[in-house]
């Protein structure tokens, strides 16, 4: 009987406000039998790469009315990953297939309702497999949908991106540059600012922690105002952006990471600018745009092969490093997409 | 020489924050010669009806970055009105035409650049002329554009309207009912609440001044949440609405009257709901939609003729009553569209 160890990352209990801690997550070893045939609509996978994403913070708490459900205490947490199918009871997948989508933070996962789960079969393997946790997965699709679909950008427009060195922000900036926009990003360290300017081709970037007056900082970089704001931060930054928007400006709200750990969110005061400047703010969730995935791949794969997209990964080796990798996300420790390597094949 | 008296309402000086007062406006009598031929692109009009609109508050102050310019001190203030053309140097208009659009708060106005000024010739006179200051003018177009174009409503959706007894709010509610939506409005007095329920056909209405907890009040009227919010108020009401929105909800921001007189606007705290519920908020200005005016008339004129639209006017007689009428708007004195009758023909 091929019962093997199955290392898992488990949530101790749903947490309240405040920064999550590594100790909120427990590493334990369960057993799993790899030889029991899976039932209909179930697949057994070996997890290869796991993605650390900001939205996972919400799932650690027990909140009502969120767009994702809370993690279940004492169960492996769930996130996006790349995995190899070991056995399949789902007609869409077969043994040996590589897939990306929602899986468990463990070495092996039984994924029930695989079809409905939004798993994608990986068809192109001439690019790094880990990219499907980000650039070729939800991260890339978020940047694509948020920028092209929500922001409706035009060549020459003025684009600002907060948390720009994050996985989605870097991509949005590069998409905007490829379209011929003027692009400025904010980030939280000199290292990240340098990355944006020197590696990602942003026109400008600044460290928001060094700016006493965010309204003035944005005015400096956008003397004529901002056409498009790709919002990852919320709170004070959103307020400062509102004061600097141009008429018919668009704000795609992808995240508001500055607000997730607060007991009470920050107030935003400049909302009358929505009227004065006829601004559109739109929150979006990438899953609403997954039908565009083939169109996205058609655009992005040539860019990747031609080296036109700079994509940085911050790789943590081994499932045991996963808690630190995830928690680090909320203190801005990572540079680029945070990936956990569970196994390389 | 037909020099006649020309009574005028003049702004004493641009005002700061706080409620405007009647004494900020001065009534004076100038002279105008009605027999001097007007130059090219100029028309001379006799003003018949003037419209009091909330946005005029902004023009009384001297602010930068507004969507309208400040009123010029010691000059007649400017607003929407219905007028009769006495002489025309503009090919689009001829003597005897009735028009609606921007005109001066005075008995007679010389309108320069009439063509560019966005004046509309009145073609249908089987309905009350005063309606062109509101229902058939900017008010009606605001309701039409904001509801149909910005909110993209569907039959059966849950619609909330703040300042619902105002000119635009009443109409939006009726459009929503005609489409088959569930409609609730808020207003600031029992009289207004009764009007909404008994005259305008709203499903429900409530007096926001009697609600200690706006979030709870909205939850009571919308146990399943709000699909569409027609925003006239801003601040605390917007915050409470955000907490009650449904997934893919839409907010059309037409005004934020609660914020105009504040030294510092109120903070709004629930903006992360934009993400959680994938909400779209969009500020709009009716002038961006004036190309739809013929389409709007096509819809609204039959409704008016068939008595399917309830439209209330609050009429002040004589130009000398205009300052009180305008100032009353900001304390919620009026019920329905505030019109000043300068002359009936």
From TrEMBL, chains A, B:
What CDD domains does the record tag this protein with? double_bond_reductase_like
InterPro entries hit by this protein: ADH-like_C, ADH_N_2, ER, GroES-like_sf, MDR_fam, NAD(P)-bd_dom_sf
Please give one Gene Ontology molecular function term for this protein. Answer: 2-alkenal reductase [NAD(P)H] activity
Q: What is the source species?
A: Daucus carota subsp. sativus
Q: What is this protein called?
A: Uncharacterized protein
Q: Which PANTHER family match?
A: PROSTAGLANDIN REDUCTASE, PROSTAGLANDIN REDUCTASE 1
Record SUPFAM superfamilies: GroES-like, NAD(P)-binding Rossmann-fold domains
Q: Which Pfam families match?
A: ADH_N_2, ADH_zinc_N
């Amino acid at each position: 009987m091929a019962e093997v160890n199955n290392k898992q990352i488990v949530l101790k209990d749903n947490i309240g406000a405040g920064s999550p801690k590594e100790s909120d997550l427990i590493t334990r070893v369960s057993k799993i039998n790899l030889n029991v045939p899976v039932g209909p609509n179930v697949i057994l996978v070996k997890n290869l790469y796991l993605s650390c994403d900001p939205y996972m913070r919400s799932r650690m708490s027990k909140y009502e009315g969120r767009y994702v459900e809370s993690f279940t205490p004492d169960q492996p947490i769930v996130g996006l990953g790349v995995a190899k199918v070991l056995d399949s009871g789902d007609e869409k997948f077969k043994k040996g297939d590589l897939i990306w989508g929602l899986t468990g933070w463990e070495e092996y996962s039984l994924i029930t309702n695989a079809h409905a789960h939004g798993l994608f079969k990986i068809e192109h393997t001439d690019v790094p497999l880990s990219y499907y946790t980000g650039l070729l997965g939800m991260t890339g699709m978020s940047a694509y949908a948020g920028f092209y679909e929500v922001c409706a950008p035009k060549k020459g427009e003025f684009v600002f991106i907060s948390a720009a060195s994050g996985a989605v922000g870097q991509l949005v900036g590069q998409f905007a540059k490829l379209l011929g926009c003027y692009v400025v990003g904010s980030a939280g360290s000199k290292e990240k600012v340098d990355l944006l300017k020197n590696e990602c081709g942003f026109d400008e970037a600044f460290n928001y922690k060094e700016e006493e007056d965010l309204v003035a900082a944005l005015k400096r970089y956008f003397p004529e105002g901002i056409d498009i704001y790709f919002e990852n931060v919320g709170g004070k930054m959103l307020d400062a952006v509102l004061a600097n928007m141009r008429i018919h400006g668009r704000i795609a709200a992808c995240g508001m990471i500055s607000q997730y750990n607060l007991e009470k969110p920050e107030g935003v005061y400049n909302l009358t600018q929505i009227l004065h400047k006829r601004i559109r703010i739109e929150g979006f969730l990438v899953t609403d745009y997954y039908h565009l995935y083939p169109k996205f791949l058609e655009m992005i794969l040539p860019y990747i092969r031609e080296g036109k997209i700079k994509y940085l990964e911050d790789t943590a080796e081994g499932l045991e490093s996963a808690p630190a990798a995830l928690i680090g996300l909320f203190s801005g420790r990572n540079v680029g997409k945070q990936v956990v390597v569970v196994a390389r094949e």
